Amino acid sequence: MGITSTNNTDGKLSSVSLADDGVNEPPIKLRLVAATDDNGFDHRISKDHAAIGSIEPTTHASVDDVCELAHTIDVAGVTAGVKVNIEHGLSATEAATRLAANGPNKLEDGEKITIWQILLRQVSNSLTIVLLITMVLSFSLHDFIEGAVITAVILLNIIVGFVQDYRAEQTILSLQALSAPTCKVLRDSQVQVVKAEALVMGDVVRLAIGDVVPADLRLFESVNLTTDEALLTGESLPVAKSSQAVLTDADVPIGDRMNMAYCASLVAQGRGLGIVTATAMNTEVGKIAALLQGKTKHDASSSMPARLLHHFVTGLKHALGLVGSPLQIRLSKFALLLFGVAIVLAVIVFSAAKWQVEDEVLIYGICVAVAVIPESLIAVLTLTIAVGTKAMAKSNVVVRRMASLEAVGGVTNICSDKTGTLTQGKMIARKGVVPGVGEFVISDTTHPLDPSSGNVRFENTVEGDVNSASGKALRLFLDIISLCNLSSVQRSDKLDDDTAVPPQQWRAVGEPTEIALQVLALRFDHGKVKILLENNRKLLHEHAFDSAIKRMTMIYSNPATSTIDVFTKGATEVILPILTCSEEEKLRINADAEGMAQQGLRVLCLAHKTASINDLDALADRSVAETTLTFAGLVGLYDPPRVETAGAVRKCQQAGITVHMLTGDHIGTATAIAIDVGIIAAKATRLDSGTKHPDAMLASDFDKLTNAEVDALDRLPLVVARCSPDTKVRMVEALHRRDAFCAMTGDGVNDSPALKRADVGIAMGLNGSDVAKQAADLVLVDDDFASIVRAVEEGRRLFDNIQKFLLHLLTSNIAQVLLLLIGLAFKDSSSASIFPLSPLEILWANLVTSSPLALGLGLEPASSDIMARPPRSLRAGVFTKELIVDKMVYGTAMGSLCLVAFVAVVYGGGNGELGEDCNQDWNGSCSVVFRARATVFAVLSWTLLVTAWEVRDFDESLFFGVGVKPDAVSSGVELKAVPVPSRETPTSTAPATALPKQPVPTRTLTATTTSSTSTSSTVAATSPNKVRNFALFDKLYANVFLFWACITGFLVVFPLIYLPQVNRVVFKHGGIGWEWGVVVGCTVGYVVVVETWKGIKRWRKRAVARRVRGEMGSV
Asked: Is the whole-model pTM more than 0.85?
């Protein structure tokens, strides 16, 4: 027999013939009857299309019987009852009809925020309480105009807040729907991935290890299937399942129904196929939910006081914003604190009046209380977070827990898997080694799923016939990669003559590694479907892949020889110890594997043994099955890095984020890919396990280290190969001991502990298990590492913007409180304190002027250097030292200038005439006071507008931008203000051994970037190659929403001051003339103060940066 390869260009399969006559046999017709028989299940469909769906049922069951008594009905009876043929599944049309008739497969919603709770939240917050008090007092004092205006403000605030909150809730619900559990279902003879809620009775569902059972299923195929039903039965151990069992007792306990898989249980081991017999509230878990709801109602009816107390407490928490992410709760508590401060300030006002609380004093006290409350804080925060979740969704990141939205921006270390995350996850078999045949190479592959793509070239091929050693060795090699495999690969145009799928489109279901192996087998016309049907093989037992031992075994019957074949594949180092070959042969095998791994290939070792049919029971023991095996070959798979991965890794390093690769691959493969994507430097090589600065380390070496030894490392390894779930947990714990804030990716069931312990757990959306998704904070829709980087960037942008609008709102409040408290000293002729600002002027400034500006700041795009500065400290929260100092400086300056404006008009042009009774209505003595109020109102409004533009960057000047001198581009100068805030280094541009251990306390050097909102000027200012250009107009128009909000706020001041009745009657101020000079002068003065303060900060940070560079240079 000659071994020859053919590469056809006419769309037919290329094949390597093993036929006796040397003529290539045509590829068999692939049909998705293989959705069942493709995996070798016992009921294999024969070539004449025999199927269980055509077997005459022994039990005639109705739909209701199937729903309630499926465990007592055989498979044929269930299929007849729900009207489905398990060979093809339901049609899409029929599934849609049943879904419309019976509704989605989801439980009735439990406790959630209702429309009334959202409305209550608008009414019950501290702002509205203060406004309601002010409204009542205004009406009681017969100030109907002010009362009516405040009423309108209250209604407007409630409506706007309600609309924003409602939209935010809907956004969160829609994003949660994106991360809803999915399942694999057979429809129209094709395996599809659908959301669990789209399942209907009669659907054929595939189950695999790690899946959450999406509905109640009557199993008709099972291979080593066990499920964890603790949620239903309380049984701590998984329950073994058998699809062949038919129970006779309808009342058998749920835990003993071995032919059923129940909704919400977890597949702990094995795999299976089942027919949906119940969905939604008709499932067993749905019945429990209904009972709980009924019990809740019953208990409520018997204990009305307890029910009322529960609803009151719950509603109050929602109303006061004490439910949500930690940031939302902190800011809500801050708003309540300010409400307490408002009461204290009102008491101060009353005390200044010696508690002679007359109408004037009462309104003044309320006026001060209103001034201290940032009215739009919660509404702007809610909308900003909603925008952030939408932005993350567009970046293919679904937020499952809102706390992670604010936390991801502070990540210092990212521990990422390799396959499918850093790489494309589209593996291609590149090389194979077959004993007695030699090495073969596959080249010129253009499509990972198309077996006809590329060429197969053998080296040192041995000629012979089918019975020769070389022919048998190659056939055994192909049997293992094809049968010890859970994937399926089909050509769509061969599935059904009626399908509209374009020709030559191949589809696959399974893990990327196994898909690549199945495609390799199809290249030789040796696919699983053909082998099973032609040789009448049957899968007898399966030892599923275990990430701890990194191998899997599948046991098949061999009717031709009346024996049993044991097929095993796994990592080379775990297969070698269980082989029967000599030590010399093992060394040669290991050398071949090492050589392939150094080329960046993922290497699998294949092994086999033949056993007697009488040994089947013994082979059920894994330790017996996986021993005394014969070497059958090596196969090397290549998974190319994603195009965007290298750039994403480089961006992380520039942002002070250390990237670690934790992979199950060979250390040579992992190192090669890590070098390609820039995780480790090209000159870095694998170091011995005893070296203290390893770039790459085996998980076995890492696990041998004690915690003290791990902590003694100058930095943790950047690549951990042959990584187990326990290794991931140890890595997270080691990072936490170094005060690092880490994100961990995972996709398997065993990854959930690491995902939970990580500060931000990230699950894979495409290939991740449901358990991993439930344990994670974020879900990557596309499994792409670059999406993690975009999530970090969005988290930083969100944090920056929250700080920006907080600074803006609190600056306004400090200015108003300062002005009003000092204003107590201004007494009219009746010794009553004169308002420098009227209550409506304060409400207008806080609600109408500030709210759009704060919203615009919340929508601010990310700064250009957002990924060029180190991670922020999460311990400081949003109220950093810089924000607190800035708000005091800006608030004091704004309040002082407003006071200067008032004094200038009253004493400069009005001879100190404060009139009499000018807080209530206009009279002839109030001209000076009314003009002074109008001047203060204009100064306050304009400085608020200027503040919105100024706080877009905490350090950079509003008038100047940063450029780079031409020589800086060629010189490659890149300076960072600080290193990462832990002992982990931000980059990997040099071998770890070149980095001495630094005795630097955590965040010692972060003084140079205490603000996370500083743009490139903060870093740029430390470099002599940076220049500053006039960029005022570009900066003003960079945020279009904020630009027009400022322009509108600027223009609206004029009608409010000059419109008759509106000015004197509503706002208690009058028209002004020469006073505009005071307004302009105070506004310019405010800009000078802010720009000077920013200049001082830049100078201080440059000085600190120079000192840091000097310290680092000395080291």
From this structure: no
